[in-house]
Specification:
The relative contact order is 0.14. A four-stranded parallel β-sheet has the order 3-2-1-4, sandwiched between helices. With 250 residues, it is α/β, with parallel strands linked by helices.
């Protein structure tokens, strides 16, 4: 694990130099992935790494846990409550959709959740631009494979250091780095709405996904869910689609 951390830190430092940037920025959710990233980027750029806590009608415990990540990593941080901004944004959009008679309440929850992730992404890039920094993502291998991230939201980043680590491997790295025990043991959640958890939303568990990714045997029901999530989210792992170039080359 020590070697993996050393390699990760060196890679982050190399990417900062390649981009002629000055530092690194991460959004701190109070979860294990963002806490691990906070520790890694603080090791890579101890004077120029920033964690940003961005509650949006969030459970107060999430911000408290995010501060625990700040405390254990020593990273400089800002806390920016985006609740009012998010509410005002959706008030305008939903208002216009309702006026048109085309508002679909059942789709509004997902739109609401994705808007939170994209508002946080916009905030992170504003902060990153201010400090000439790169935005570091927190998606692990399981989330990347199943597409459990918002396109141009928490998926809108410059670097994804955890993308080859399963959830269990992230947990082991968290222990090595000294992430607070409360964070390591809490149920994974993107904080998209009250009571939301990753595993309930996906319909399977990280343990099953990790086993699948490592070539292990899992129940057919879980395998089918994982493969369906992967196929449905394929577009998230690519740049925007474009028509074939040969159509326009004479």
């Amino acid at each position: 694990m020590e070697k993996k951390v050393e390699l990760m830190v060196q890679w982050l430092q190399d990417k900062v130099k390649e981009a002629k940037a000055d530092g690194l920025v991460v959004g701190l959710s109070g979860g294990i992935d963002s806490s691990v990233v906070a520790h890694l980027i603080q090791r890579a750029c101890p004077e120029t790494s920033i964690g940003v806590i961005m509650p949006i009608s969030s459970n107060e415990q999430d911000a408290k846990d995010a501060l625990k990540a700040v405390e254990t990593s020593g990273i400089h941080h800002f806390q920016m409550d985006l609740t009012t901004v998010h509410r005002d944004l959706l008030s305008v959009i939903d208002g216009k959709l309702q006026e048109s008679g085309m508002f679909v309440p059942v789709r509004a929850q997902l739109g609401n959740a994705n808007a939170r992730a994209r508002l946080r992404m916009t905030t992170l890039y504003y902060v990153a631009n201010h400090f000439n920094a790169l935005v570091v993502g927190t998606d692990n291998r399981a989330e990347w494979y199943t597409g459990y991230f918002t396109k141009y939201g928490d998926g809108g980043v410059d670097l994804v250091p955890l993308v080859h680590l399963t959830k269990s491997e992230v947990r082991e790295m968290a222990k090595f780095l000294g992430v607070h025990r409360d964070i390591i043991e809490k149920a994974p959640s993107a904080g998209l709405w009250e009571g939301q958890t990753d595993e309930n939303e996906m319909g399977t568990t990280y343990q099953m996904i990790d086993c699948y990714l490592k070539g292990g045997q899992i129940p057919d029901k879980d395998r089918e869910i994982i493969e369906a999530l992967h196929m449905r989210s394929e577009h998230k792992r690519h740049l925007a689609a474009s028509p074939p170039a040969e159509w326009f080359i004479s």
